[in-house]
Amino acid sequence: MKQLSGLDASFLNIETGPVYGHVSSVAIYDSANAAEPITAARLQERMMSRIHLLPVFRHKLVTVPLDLDQPYWCDDPDFDIKAHIHDVGITAPGTMDQLKEIVSRIVAKPLDRSRPLWEMAVINGLEGGKTAVVSTVHHSLIDGGSGNDINSILLDRDPDADQNNPPPQPWTPEPIPDALSLMTSAMTANALRPLKAAKLQWDVFTELVQKSPNIAKLAPMMASTAVTGTAHNTVFNAKPTNRRIWEPFRIPLAEVRQIKKALGATVNDVVMAECAGGLRTWLKAHDALPDKPLTASVPVSIRSESQKGALGNQVSMIYTELPTDVDDPLERLKAVNEAMKSAKEMHDALPMAQMIEFGDFATPGLTSMVARASQRSNMAGQAMPSVTISNVPGAQWPMYLCGAKMLEFYPVSMIVDGQVLNITLQSYNGSLDFGIISCPHTVPDLKGIADAILADHQALLAEVKKKQ
């Protein structure tokens, strides 16, 4: 039994109406050249042979009566692998457009909280004999870093790895605690919260005092940013419906590194600049480009070395200007580089790990009430950044599932109330694989944004080649 942190539970509490707290991925495999095709039955066998390495995949949520404390992950005595991995039919040869439609439908529904919060859909019949595996896991369970840890358990680096999955290891589920025990634990925890909160406040204060010279140095920069201002209530600061639209595309990592090296930036700077350029083009074409820059939220891992391999969330947010108001691609990259440096300095000057712990002191009942109130009001669009852009590092070597080579790996992230655009990418084996998700009511032509980002990449690459 493991209790969720306040940060983990926040992804449960945001699920109000058409907002869902799960994240997904779409892996495309060269199943035609494997010894056997990937099927749900084979993947079920693979999972059961290795699930002892992923014990939380057999855990379900158990809530505390009256929502007096954060819920727990407990063994599911009725766990059935067939309820989590299934085949999805498609008429061969299935196209990428058909796959996008299927993925959009899969992610547009909440996971069943009565059982462990994950599912996998196996889609055979794609063009060229390919197979797609759509994996959906609740964000309360994983972040980008721990998602990679799951892949390292399920996938192989060796295409000739033994595919004879051993039988599942013996497993006896621990009993689910009764309501009285949970109530007693919650009352004890609530009694101790003032002491723990006071200690945490002291820790944060001590950390701030130690970092005060850096904070003082950054104060003018913070004030300057506040005066400059950014765009609010953009077309992307809207309420989502219960529908989703997803668009994948790829950019060669070598080309991004070529731009990075030539212009003295980082890979993430290049990605941010190209996203800014693509969004600028799309917004301008739709007569919706604000005079001020958009604001972007950028997730950053605060996972320490000792926390590697552990599930759950260890992530914070950087908030930065996205220079959609800058026309020139080179100037836009320079603006991103400067904005990200400032945002990172501000972020690193604060004790983020300790500040995130304050989420542990708000009970689920209170946070759920706040989330519902926010959804009913129109405040979210004024407070939220226009877009989230997340760059997740991944394996730079081929990976295999049941002997089939993984060709592409696209993220499918989440959108929230007040922010209906998310651009997440993961590097894999020499490529940056992008997955953009939105609500079709707000952005019906999501491919237009993808095409505009790709066009901006080519424009930036062309500028670099001119200088060489």
Name some characteristics of this structure.
15 strands, Chloramphenicol Acetyltransferase, 6-stranded mixed β-sheet, 468 residues
Architecture blueprint of SSEs:
Elements: E1 2-3, H1 6-13, E2 22-29, H2 40-50, E3 59-62, E4 72-75, E5 85-88, H3 96-106, E6 118-126, E7 130-138, H4 144-154, H5 179-228, E8 245-252, H6 253-263, H7 267-285, E9 294-301, E10 315-322, H8 329-348, H9 352-356, H10 364-376, H11 380-383, E11 387-392, E12 400-401, E13 404-412, E14 421-428, E15 431-438, H12 446-467
Parallel strand pairs: 5-6, 9-11, 11-14
Antiparallel strand pairs: 1-4, 2-7, 2-13, 3-4, 6-7, 8-15, 9-10, 12-13, 14-15
Could you walk me through the main structural features you see in this protein, from its secondary elements to its overall organization?
- It is a single chain.
- By secondary structure, this protein is of the alpha+beta class.
- It has a domain at 220-364 and 378-391 and 417-467: Chloramphenicol Acetyltransferase (2-Layer Sandwich).
- It contains 12 helices and 15 strands.
- The chain has helices at residues 6-13, 40-50, 96-106, 144-154, 179-228, 253-263, 267-285, 329-348, 352-356, 364-376, 380-383, 446-467; strands at 2-3, 22-29, 59-62, 72-75, 85-88, 118-126, 130-138, 245-252, 294-301, 315-322, 387-392, 400-401, 404-412, 421-428, 431-438.
- The strands form 3 sheets. A 6-stranded mixed sheet has the order 5-6-7-2-13-12, sandwiched between helices.
- Strand 5 (85-88), helix 3 and strand 6 (118-126) form a beta-alpha-beta unit.
- The chain is globular, with a radius of gyration of 23 Å.
- The N and C termini lie far apart (59 Å).
